[in-house]
Write a structure and sequence with these properties.
The chain has 18 helices and seven strands. By secondary structure, the protein is of the alpha+beta class. Strands 2-4-5-7-6 form a five-stranded mixed beta sheet, with helices on one face. The chain has a two-stranded antiparallel ribbon with strand order 1-3.
């Protein structure tokens, strides 16, 4: 029952129960593209500047409140409470209005801001505040006994202009809208034709107005540059997010396609091999005339050709299925302690007929005292046969193949096959290590093979925790090295001494 469920699960080419992420990726791509198009269509940053101005008003509200209370208390102390109340009403009302508009602006989205209406609101409230400051600088105090009240009023107004230049720099025209009337009012009420302190303060206020307007303008430009840089950064991030989302989706589809291919091939073992075995068996019976003479030499040759072609096709299918099982993670290792040199030497003897047919000299160099290796013997044989088969294929007649087994520098073990064939170009090594990949030498020489031997060797080596290294130079030959990690090398335990017979031990004691 369990086996039937497992085999049925293997038949699934793509598991449709797994939720797809296409909708999530599409939403992410759409969102980032909308953000990019929105940023490209609003290069003036008017809404951002209004948001910055609103935050500045909100953050400076406590300081403004303290200033208004201090000035009002000063008016009470110098015994002009009525004038202080008249000044406080429009001034405090304008700042309260600015605060409320700013709070509302902070709570709505950037796209919902009516820029022209909001800007008009801010400038109107700033103008009302300027009316209050114009009344403030026009105050006179004859009964309070302070000779320099006008100078004090000018100093307070100068400080307020400087503070407003810092707070309202993101709103163009705020300085002139607010303080053009107070400066003119001070000059009208306190300046005199002669050179007095009041006249000098009027000149200072008149000069400070364009100066602080210029300072606010520079701060405004700096803020715009920062917003432009931030917009470019957000645009790049959005492009990267879009590219990453597309890349992730493409990679997921490629992985699904590769997994579907691997599962398909891994599950088709029985379906492909069964008819091939029938073809091989029947063609062999016909070629050898087991059931009687055919009576036609041409038919006998056809049967032999069918048998040879079937053997070649079966070998190719076996390689494809082995590689598919490795890629699908369904290749199970049957691990056991073995002598690497013995398994490699025995596998090499299976290639003797092909090696002698091409008059190739095989040189074996086996480390004599190799400890046992925990590995799959069938996989080791397949690695050795694939490497030797490639070496025999590309080694010229009368050439030499060197087969080496020994220790690695890290305490592991390795097997290496080196030939003196035509070699592989350095830029073609990744090609020959990929499935169905063949170098130009193999293509030109039309050597038999599908380009699956080295990928299978690489996959089997990685299943053992090892690696395949391919070293080659044109016209100098190729060396393939498969290493196994030190963790797979088994330590030799000392032999347990045999227990001495009991009667001998009693005799020695006596």
């Amino acid at each position: 029952m369990g086996r039937d469920q497992h085999s049925a699960a293997d038949k699934f080419i793509v598991d449709r129960r797994k939720p797809h992420r296409n909708s999530d990726v599409a939403r992410a791509v759409r969102k980032t593209r909308d953000r990019l198009s929105h940023q490209a269509g609003s290069p003036t940053f008017d809404a951002d500047m209004l948001k910055i101005h609103a935050r500045a008003i909100i953050s400076s509200a406590p300081a403004v409140l303290l200033l208004l209370l201090a000035v009002a208390m000063f008016g009470v102390l110098i015994e002009i409470p009525v004038q202080a109340a008249i000044w406080l009403f429009p001034t405090a009302g304008s700042y309260l209005g600015l605060f409320l508009v700013s709070r509302h602006l902070e709570q709505i989205e950037r796209e919902d801001i009516d820029i022209r209406h909001t800007r008009r609101q801010f400038l109107t409230l700033h103008f009302i505040g300027g009316v209050g400051w114009a009344y403030f600088v026009s105050l006179r105090c004859v009964e309070c006994g302070l000779p320099d009240v006008s100078t004090l009023l000018a100093i307070v107004l100068l400080l307020v202009i400087a503070a407003t230049a810092l707070i309202s720099a993101s709103l163009k025209g705020a300085i002139l809208t607010t303080f053009a009337m107070p400066v003119a009012s001070y000059a009208y009420y306190h300046a005199q034709p002669s050179l007095t302190v009041e006249s000098i303060m009027a000149l200072v206020l008149a000069a400070s107005l364009p100066f602080f307007t210029y300072v606010a303008h520079q701060r405004n430009e700096a803020t715009l540059r920062l917003l432009a840089f931030r917009s470019e950064k957000d645009g790049l991030i959005a492009e990267l997010e879009t590219a990453k989302a597309m890349s992730d989706e493409a990679r997921r589809r490629a992985e699904e396609a590769n997994l579907a291919k691997s599962r398909f091939l891994a599950s088709m073992s029985h379906e492909l091999r069964t008819p091939l075995n029938a073809i091989l068996g029947f063609s062999e019976v016909m070629a050898k005339e087991v059931l009687g003479p055919i009576g036609n030499e041409t038919y006998r040759d056809y049967a032999s050709d069918v048998h040879d072609s079937g053997k070649h096709l079966l070998a190719l299918i076996n390689e494809i299925l082995d590689l598919s099982r490795i890629e699908a993670g369904r290749y199970q290792l049957n691990e056991e302690p073995l002598r690497l040199g013995e398994v490699v030497a025995e596998s090499a003897r299976m290639m003797n007929l092909k090696i002698r047919a091409k008059d190739i000299r095989l040189v074996e160099e086996m480390e004599p005292r190799l400890q046992r290796l925990l590995a799959d013997e069938r996989a080791i044989r397949q690695i050795t046969l694939n490497l030797l088969s490639n070496a025999v294929k590309f080694t010229p007649r009368g050439g030499q193949i060197r087969l080496t087994v020994g220790w690695t520098a890290g305490g592991g073990q390795y097997l290496a096959v080196r030939d003196n064939g035509p070699g592989i170009a350095e830029d073609e090594i990744p090609i020959v290590l990929s499935a169905f990949g063949q170098g130009t030498i193999a293509i030109k020489s039309a050597e038999e093979g599908a380009g699956l031997g080295l990928p299978i060797v690489q996959g089997l080596a990685e299943l053992h925790g090892g690696k395949l290294y391919l070293k080659s130079r044109l016209r100098e030959g190729t060396e393939a090295i498969v290493t196994f990690p030190a963790s797979r090398v088994m330590e030799e335990l000392p032999a347990v001494p045999a227990e001495e017979p009991r009667h001998n031990r009693q005799a020695r004691i006596a």
